[in-house]
């Protein structure tokens, strides 16, 4: 069975986005540059088993403008050449593009959870989500995420969305690993206690 792995940057108080009154997708306003670079090396490690990226609509719209222009980096090559799926729920997009690379496919309709379960039971490598906090909350509520890799930066911010806002019930996790990063950030890996 394919695993769904979340990789996301977070403040100590769980904020994973930028200020919604400005550019919500720009979480980099509160992060440490060196922590992002070091964290990116760990994201690259996920692609040893993952061949598909799952994105929410807002994250797709942001990343599809940036990543196709990234050339010559191992992470950029992995992201650009991976299969991409964009969850658009009931409002499909007219056309999906990813620069000159393979266009993403849409998951749309009222049965997204079932479609994602089918993906997990299908052929292929693991599936990685990075960013997409709205999608993450939905998949966490449906118990579909198998591993949470969170880079926690040594900062507390007062604006932005929290990763686990609006969960339907308490979630228990097992700590799998903690890696201290050189800049004071931590890469914390959890798996659901029910897994």
TrEMBL record:
<dbReference type="InterPro" id="IPR024072">
    <property type="entry name" value="DHFR-like_dom_sf"/>
</dbReference>
<feature type="domain" description="Bacterial bifunctional deaminase-reductase C-terminal">
    <location>
        <begin position="2"/>
        <end position="181"/>
    </location>
</feature>
<dbReference type="Pfam" id="PF01872">
    <property type="entry name" value="RibD_C"/>
</dbReference>
<protein>
    <recommendedName>
        <fullName>Bacterial bifunctional deaminase-reductase C-terminal domain-containing protein</fullName>
    </recommendedName>
</protein>
<dbReference type="GO" id="GO:0008703">
    <property type="term" value="F:5-amino-6-(5-phosphoribosylamino)uracil reductase activity"/>
</dbReference>
<dbReference type="GO" id="GO:0009231">
    <property type="term" value="P:riboflavin biosynthetic process"/>
</dbReference>
<dbReference type="InterPro" id="IPR002734">
    <property type="entry name" value="RibDG_C"/>
</dbReference>
<dbReference type="InterPro" id="IPR050765">
    <property type="entry name" value="Riboflavin_Biosynth_HTPR"/>
</dbReference>
């Amino acid at each position: 069975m394919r695993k769904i792995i979340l990789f996301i940057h977070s403040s100590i108080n769980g904020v994973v986005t930028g200020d919604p009154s400005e550019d919500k997708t720009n979480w980099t306003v509160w992060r440490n540059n060196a922590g992002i670079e070091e964290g990116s090396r760990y994201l690259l490690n996920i692609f040893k088993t993952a061949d598909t990226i799952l994105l929410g609509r807002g994250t797709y719209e942001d990343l599809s403008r940036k990543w196709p222009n990234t050339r010559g980096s191992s992470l950029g090559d992995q992201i650009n050449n991976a299969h991409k799926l964009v969850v658009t729920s009931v409002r499909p997009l007219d056309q999906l593009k990813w620069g000159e690379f393979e266009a993403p496919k849409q998951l749309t309709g009222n049965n997204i959870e079932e479609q994602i379960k089918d993906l997990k039971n299908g052929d292929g490598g693991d599936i990685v989500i990075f960013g997409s906090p709205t999608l993450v909350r939905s998949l966490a509520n449906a118990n579909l995420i198998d591993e949470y890799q969170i880079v926690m930066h040594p900062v507390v911010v007062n604006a932005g969305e929290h990763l686990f806002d609006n969960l339907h019930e308490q979630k228990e996790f097992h700590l799998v690993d903690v890696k201290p990063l050189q800049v004071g950030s931590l890469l914390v890996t959890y798996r659901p206690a029910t897994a």
